[in-house]
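REVIEWER CHECKLIST
Item 1: Sequence provided? yes
Item 2: Single chain? yes
Item 3: Sequence as submitted:
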Amino acid sequence: MGDVRPQPAGNPIATGASVEGEKDENKFLLAGQAKPSDAGSVSLAPMEEVRKSNWKYKSKKQQARTVAALLGKLLVLITALYFFICSLGILSDAFQLVGGREAGDALGESSLFVNPLAGLMIGVIATVLLQSSSTTTSIIVALTASGVIQKVEYSIPIVMGANIGTSVTNTIVSIGQIGDREQFKRAFAGATVHDMFNFLSVLVLLPVEAVSHYLFYLTEAIVNTMSLTEEADNQEFLSVLTDPFIELFVQLNRSAIIENARGNHTEEIHLLKQHCGILQEGNCTVNETVAEGCVENIVQKCDYAFFNSSLSERAIGVIMLLIALFMLITALLVMVKALRSVLGVQLEGVVKKAANGNLPGKARYLTPYLAILIGAGVTMLVQSSSVFTSTLTPLVGIGILDLERMLPLTVGSNIGTTFTGILAALALKGEAEDRRHGFQVAFAHLFFNISGLLVWYPIPAMRNVVLGCARFMGETTAKYRWFAILYLILAFLLIPGLVFGLSLGGWQVMVGVLAPVFFVFFLVWLLNMLQKHRRSYLPVRLQTWDFLPLWLTSLQPYDAVISKVLGALRRRKKSYTAAHDDEGTEDHPIP
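Item 4: Structure as written out by the authors:
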């Protein structure tokens, strides 16, 4: 029913004349004037608000203040964005200091890669430790070209794992919006849409590749048509802007991880740079006896905060990790507030409509594919899918970017990040055959992401599977916010580590453990589908999950336990603080 309100006695119900009267009154109010016929009865408050918000009614001084305030907010927004991107770079460096040597060791164990699942899990873990799929892929390209990884077929599952591992960064970024439940739900869904797309792509394409080797044969055919005579340098556009700030803290020797993977574990190879260039070339060699008149290289000392520090590389990495997380969360909060302040309520709606709108007419069906091209292009420019998707995640959180538009941008970013691997292959030196193997790995990464796009995006039903999984993750973490931390630990550390450990025992052990697990998951999925769409086909007992204990079907019991533990810790902290304050009062009584 409609909204029926009682009318005052003697008044007609909404005649055409009364509607015209309301329009006439609104016209005067919008102009900031009182209606002549009832000037004494019109409240001045609405007119004053209209005058304040209307540009033409502001004085020159007020207009100058408005412009200055807007420019100030934009400056704050750009500054926060810069430090946000820098924090991602520091985070990557910190993870490399903490686990870079272990990642190099893992990537150098080529005998383990005979098992595709082992290669996949090493790719996930190495990328989580290095915080960059571009870095992982570049290392794999170099190791394959140098023969440390003996076959190209062994490298392909590793780059698939790198695709999964890189999505951990924007998932960490989404936790910065955990304070607002609704924002966190959207942000976590926007972050995990990347995870879900990569997980599902690997779930389909890894078995296909293991059986058919289609990526190997496709890339081999492409590389055989290439003339590998030119070499190129790998230049990064974004690093020109961010490196001056990041290098105030640490400067890394990027080749150290590759040397570690090659089995070179000498103490002279450091992850932190020991010198930053040669000021003057010497004429002495390592094996030559230093004779009179022999001049050694004069090196330029590095100038960063932790240069010549007495702390270990791992300890410096932990400190940098804490600095990076603090910077990331602070910059994220400032960025979100500044963006809201700059846009305002009305302009935010306009920007949201533009960001999520479609091309006109029949071209609207091409809009998502244009978004894919934009995602790929921007990622090629910044050479980091983590930076691009992590910057979009807060926009999804505050509601400016829809999840449906985030997905094609993420898919495009996956394709764009493969450009770094191709550049790494271009920069390779050595025999043409070795460089050809490096190119094969780089192209395998590219065509794996294109294959994932073709499987999961063009058909709406397949696309909705990815979106549905991401929404489920967002809703779950909004209800149980601790689940976000649990998901990060399980998805990117414990499960890859467990599967990798099982793979070391051989196919028999791995199949014996994982086959029953996959069978149980399949039964649960099948039963859920039947309960949702064909409930009448099931026995009464199986039509719901009520026959199982609550702890098997809901996170509520775990949430109750975690809430009790956190509540006890808060009460203990409060009582400790109160007791400490009382002691201070006794020591220094108030006169």
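Item 5: Key structural point noted by reviewer: The longest helix spans residues 60-108.
Item 6: Recommendation: ____
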